[in-house]
């Protein structure tokens, strides 16, 4: 590029400020959207890759194969003693257990107790998870039964500036015990699903503490293994069925491997792998967002190339003159390529700035803390500059450098690339608008579905409902629980309070039993069972479909009162068919179950405790006048007034009765948010990405329209001199874009249909894919296209024909 | 048929004011063939554009029959142009993306009241100027003379009352220029009123009347001795 070429680029940029702004700005936005969504995808796919030798680490999944069971699916959970049993068969196995984790235990300091992310692990923990250390010694540390390793931030929290190593920390998983801090490890990064701030050794005598430690099928903790290479892992996988059949027979029937499996899962796949029967939405969401980012960039590139080539046509005369003055074809091509790359480089720079500016907004919208890794992004942008610059420059370079100067100079007007060029541009507009319309449809459906599930009927009223989870802590004894619930019931703003082993959002464990049906051979269907105390159905108030609710005064309602007598139970609507009843009314009074008989006294509507994606499981409710006789009991409280004030009220009572355990209570909305937040975040990110994609499409169309209008000024003059009215001109100019936009629907509709059908399939409670979304999105797209083009067309239609005819 | 009264046209751009027409009065009778001459920049095109209603006078009246076109709404002017006028330009002004036939058909496209078959009329107009064999070509595939004849065909396809020609031979060689002039004369003979700007005295002599302009004024008017 010589000085004159640079000069002419500079002039053409400043003279055609608008084109330059559209060209560079549109591409910059596309690049920014791509960077931001790319960062998100990279973040989501990078989980656990920070671990040293992460490629060698695997989690063991328990695989429940019976598809009819509510527990069907694979879970990263195993029985406690699995690692010991595996080691008997594989003496060289490298592995560790992790028990606890997020909110796994309590740290006591003086009179206060704080919930902490405590995990109990094997001494071999660091052979698998080689956490980077800050101070102290990790080797062999966990072999001492009273050693603890804590994270950097936990060290700051508990010991401030002083050296934590050697100090004492009182930690409780089920009973308080003093530990000596042996070392401090670096805080685990954001892209990790492990939440651990305190590591303590698993006691040697777990078999005595937990009677289910070697109970095959039980799930108490997570087991991780490390293999030298994938082949070793595959060999291990292959050996599992035989091992299960040998060791699990006592617990899982004659051929345990038919119903139960142990499967390795690479630790890096854990984040996106659905747990159990949860829908595998994470991967799809990620792919979708990746596509949105890619398409936004693609649309921007299409625009850029479109505008650049269109505009290049206007410079045919310049090229012709250069050739007349002696430039050869190579020189002309070089000039165009260099120009294009310079422009894309500018756009990349601007895109990077936009991404940096937009990232805080995205982080806020997505609850993330992404930062731009320049070492990766800058080389990628350089590559993009070269590739996109080449693509944008090569077409005009080839076409323009080929023009015969004589023909160009003789022609009355600047070539726009001829009919072929127009076709190509039209096709690109079709593609661009097809994607934009698909995005609009997608946004509409996503937002509608998110809205729908947010307002969906869960079977109970979400407002004014508080759950107290800290009751299930093993340090809370039943007397304290009883005292607590009694004081709560006495509060004037409490309408009802109930103890049960279930709450909205789940209490941490779920139980299921096979219920043999009379006259049907086999074990019968697997049905969830829940223990509920007095007032449970007052708190949740599900619709009573048939029969009656539990009556605290009727002794018969109490479960297990007399051996051999059937328990009076309530079932939910989902259980009616599963238990072989024809209708809810049919169920009432009937008795099912083999040696444990249950008589249905009533049917209540489904209570949806686990969010919109999870189907409600068939459930049997048992009534215990005092549920505290069993374990894992939590409270649900129906109250009036401000939830925050109520929370404080409860905490005060709690502190008085159980000071040694931190108070943990959540509103129903807080409990449920875990089931919504991923989808809502995805919807927000999708809408933002799609919005920008549509915006870029608009910018492109606007640019193309203004280019076309500029090119057709003289034609407008001619048509006007022939009697065309302003309306005729507007119709002409707007009409030229209607065809590609209408054809774009043909791409958009099927694309959006299949994408949205797949996405909606992940929800148990979903909206219908109504044609309105499609027609609506197309109308919006058409309106956008018309509005984009209309302004210029109106202006063009008003130009004085005499002036237009003078135009060149 | 036409009466211009005290027409003035001023251009104001960047604080520079140019007066292209000053107090122009002109009568054009039905069936006339009028030639406008004068040095470059004296306002010939401006006058012709004013007659063609594609430029509005700053002040003055333009009576066509009994209507003042200077005060008419843009929409009605468009209809007027479509029905009554035919334009021929020095630089042909054919639309590149349309074939010759389509370009000519454009002369009927904006008329609501076309009688008879449009295709027939397009064919007839092409025959009149002898361009029928090039119907499916694009403008850039034609010689300048052929393009100008196509432009004339477009101007006459709607059977206009008034044909306005701005240097129709300006971009043509002598032979092609003669051919175009012959067509215009023939059209005039068959009843069309023609106003033509030209720099060629010999072409001006083919008109029935000639006016000379200087600095935006009509300075002389002369009838051709028959
Ligand atoms: N749009 C415009 N803005 C400013 N001045 C204009 C404009 N159009 C014409 N003029 C000026 O008006 C005057 C008359 O122009 P016009 O085109 O009518 O001249 P002309 O007689 O047709 O010349 P030529 O023989 O060169 O075609 C000129 O001085 C010209 O510069
Ligand atoms: Mg002129």
UniProtKB/TrEMBL annotation, chain A:
InterPro entries membership: ABC3_permease_C (IPR003838), MacB_PCD (IPR025857), Macrolide_Exporter_MacB (IPR050250)
Domain ABC3 transporter permease C-terminal: 291-405, 689-801
GO MF term set: transmembrane transporter activity
Keyword Transmembrane helix tagged: yes
GO cellular component terms, A-Z: plasma membrane
Signal peptide location: none
Membrane topology annotation: Multi-pass membrane protein
Keyword flag Transmembrane helix: yes
Sequence intervals crossing the membrane: 20-41, 284-307, 340-362, 374-395, 427-448, 685-705, 741-760, 772-790
Subcellular location: Cell membrane
Keywords on record: Cell membrane, Membrane, Transmembrane, Transmembrane helix
Organism superkingdom: Bacteria
Residue ranges of domain MacB-like periplasmic core in the record: 21-241
Principal location: membrane
Name of the featured protein: FtsX-like permease family protein
Source organism per UniProt: Altericroceibacterium endophyticum
UniProtKB/TrEMBL annotation, chain B:
MF-aspect GO terms: ATP binding; ATP hydrolysis activity; transmembrane transporter activity
SUPFAM superfamilies named in the record: P-loop containing nucleoside triphosphate hydrolases
Pfam families: ABC_tran
Family: Belongs to the ABC transporter superfamily. Macrolide exporter (TC 3.A.1.122) family.
Segments forming domain ABC transporter: 2-226
Residues annotated as transmembrane: none
Keyword tags: ATP-binding, Cell inner membrane, Cell membrane, Membrane, Nucleotide-binding, Transport
GO (cellular component) term, any one: plasma membrane
Protein name: ATP-binding cassette domain-containing protein
Native organism: Altericroceibacterium endophyticum
Domain of life assignment: Bacteria
Keyword Ribonucleoprotein set for record: no
């Amino acid at each position: 590029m010589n000085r004159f070429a640079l000069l002419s680029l500079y002039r053409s940029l400043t003279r055609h400020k608008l084109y330059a702004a559209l060209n560079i700005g549109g591409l910059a936005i596309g690049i920014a959207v791509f960077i931001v969504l790319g960062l998100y995808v990279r973040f989501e796919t990078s989980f656990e890759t920070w671990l040293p030798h992460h490629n060698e680490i695997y989690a063991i999944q328990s695989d429940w194969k019976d598809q009819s069971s509510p527990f069907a699916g694979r879970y990263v959970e195993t029985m406690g003693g699995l690692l010991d049993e595996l080691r008997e068969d594989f003496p060289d196995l490298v592995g560790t257990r992790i028990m606890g984790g997020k909110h796994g235990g309590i740290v006591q300091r003086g009179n206060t107790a704080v919930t902490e992310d405590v995990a109990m692990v094997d001494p071999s923990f660091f052979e698998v998870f080689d956490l980077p250390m800050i101070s102290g010694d990790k080797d062999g540390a966990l072999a001492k039964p009273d050693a603890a390793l804590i994270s950097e931030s936990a060290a700051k929290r508990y010991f401030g500036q002083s050296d934590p190593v050697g100090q004492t920390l009182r930690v409780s998983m089920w009973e308080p015990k003093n530990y000596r801090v042996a070392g401090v490890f670096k805080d685990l990064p954001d892209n990790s699903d492990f939440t651990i701030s305190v590591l303590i050794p698993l006691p040697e005598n777990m078999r005595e503490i937990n009677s289910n430690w070697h109970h095959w099928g039980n799930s108490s903790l997570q087991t991780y293994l490390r293999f030298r290479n994938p082949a070793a892992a595959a060999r291990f996988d292959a050996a599992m069925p035989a091992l299960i059949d040998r060791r699990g027979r006592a617990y899982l029937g004659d051929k345990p491997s038919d119903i139960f499996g142990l499967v390795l899962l690479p630790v890096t796949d854990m984040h996106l792998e659905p747990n159990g029967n949860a829908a595998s939405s994470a991967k799809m969401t990620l792919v979708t967002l990746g596509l949105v980012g890619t398409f936004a960039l693609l649309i921007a590139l299409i625009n850029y190339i479109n505008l650049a080539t269109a505009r290049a046509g206007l410079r045919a005369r310049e090229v012709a003159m250069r050739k007349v003055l002696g430039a050869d074809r190579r020189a002309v091509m070089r000039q165009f390529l260099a120009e294009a790359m310079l422009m894309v480089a500018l756009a990349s720079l601007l895109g990077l700035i936009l991404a940096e500016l937009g990232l805080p907004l995205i982080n806020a919208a997505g609850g993330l803390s992404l930062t731009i890794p320049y070492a990766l992004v800058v080389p990628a942008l350089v590559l993009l500059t070269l590739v996109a610059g080449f693509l944008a420059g090569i077409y005009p370079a080839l076409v323009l450098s080929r023009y015969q100067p004589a023909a160009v100079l003789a022609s009355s007007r600047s070539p726009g690339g001829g009919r072929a060029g127009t076709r190509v541009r039209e096709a690109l507009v079709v593609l661009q608008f097809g994607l934009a319309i698909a995005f609009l449809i997608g946004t509409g459906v996503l937002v509608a579905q998110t809205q729908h599930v947010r307002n969906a009927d869960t079977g109970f009223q979400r407002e004014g409902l508080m759950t107290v989870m800290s009751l299930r802590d093993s340090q809370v004894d039943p007397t304290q629980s009883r005292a607590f619930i009694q004081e709560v019931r006495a509060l004037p703003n409490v309408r009802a309070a109930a103890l049960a082993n279930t709450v909205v959002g789940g209490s941490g464990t779920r139980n299921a039993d096979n219920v043999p049906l009379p006259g049907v051979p086999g074990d019968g269907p697997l049905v969830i069972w829940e223990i509920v105390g007095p007032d449970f159905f007052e708190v949740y108030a599900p619709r009573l479909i048939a029969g009656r609710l539990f009556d605290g005064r009727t002794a018969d309602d109490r479960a297990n009162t007399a051996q051999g007598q059937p328990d009076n139970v309530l079932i939910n609507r989902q259980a009616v068919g599963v238990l072989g009843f024809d209708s809810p009314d049919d169920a009432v009074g009937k008795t099912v179950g083999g040696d444990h008989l249950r008589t249905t006294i009533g049917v209540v509507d489904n209570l949806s405790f686990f969010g919109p994606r999870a189907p409600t499981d068939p459930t049997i409710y048992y009534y215990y006048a005092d549920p505290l006789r069993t374990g894992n009991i939590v409270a649900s409280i129906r109250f009036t007034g401000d939830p925050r004030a109520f929370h404080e009220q409860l905490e005060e009572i709690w502190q008085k009765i159980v000071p040694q355990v931190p108070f943990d209570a959540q509103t129903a909305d807080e409990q449920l948010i875990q089931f919504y937040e991923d989808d809502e975040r995805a919807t927000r990110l999708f809408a933002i990405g799609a919005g920008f994609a549509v915006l870029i499409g608009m910018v492109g169309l606007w640019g193309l329209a203004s280019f076309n209008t500029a090119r057709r000024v003289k034609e407008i003059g001619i048509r006007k001199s022939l009697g065309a009215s302003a309306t005729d001109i507007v119709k002409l100019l707007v009409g030229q874009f209607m065809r590609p936009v209408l054809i774009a629907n043909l791409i958009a509709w099927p694309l959006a249909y299949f994408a949205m059908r797949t996405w909606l399939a992940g929800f148990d409670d979903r909206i219908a894919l109504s044609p309105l979304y499609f027609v609506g999105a197309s109308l919006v797209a058409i309106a956008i296209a018309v509005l984009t083009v209309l302004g210029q067309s109106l202006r063009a239609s008003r130009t004085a024909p005499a002036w237009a005819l003078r135009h060149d | 048929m036409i009466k211009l009264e005290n027409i003035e046209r001023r251009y104001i751009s960047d604080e520079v004011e140019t007066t292209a027409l000053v107090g122009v009065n002109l009568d054009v009778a039905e069936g006339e063939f009028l030639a406008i001459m004068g040095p470059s920049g004296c306002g010939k095109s401006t006058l012709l554009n004013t007659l063609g209603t594609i430029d509005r006078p700053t002040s003055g009246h333009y009576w066509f029959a009994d209507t003042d076109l200077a005060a008419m709404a843009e929409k009605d002017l468009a209809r007027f142009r479509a029905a009554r006028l035919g334009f021929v330009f020095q630089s042909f002004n054919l639309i590149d993306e349309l074939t010759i036939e389509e370009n000519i058909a454009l002369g009927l496209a904006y008329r609501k009241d076309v009688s008879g078959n449009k295709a027939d009329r397009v064919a007839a107009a092409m025959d009149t100027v002898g361009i029928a064999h090039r119907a499916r070509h694009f403008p850039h595939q034609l010689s300048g003379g052929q393009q100008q004849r196509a432009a004339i065909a477009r101007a006459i396809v709607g059977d206009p009352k008034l044909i306005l020609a701005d240097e129709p031979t300006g971009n043509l060689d002598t032979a092609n220029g003669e051919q175009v002039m012959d067509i215009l004369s023939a059209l005039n003979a068959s009843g069309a009123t023609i106003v033509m700007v030209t720099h060629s005295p010999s072409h001006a002599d083919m008109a029935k009347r000639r006016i000379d302009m200087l600095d935006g004024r009509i300075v002389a008017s002369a009838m051709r001795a028959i």
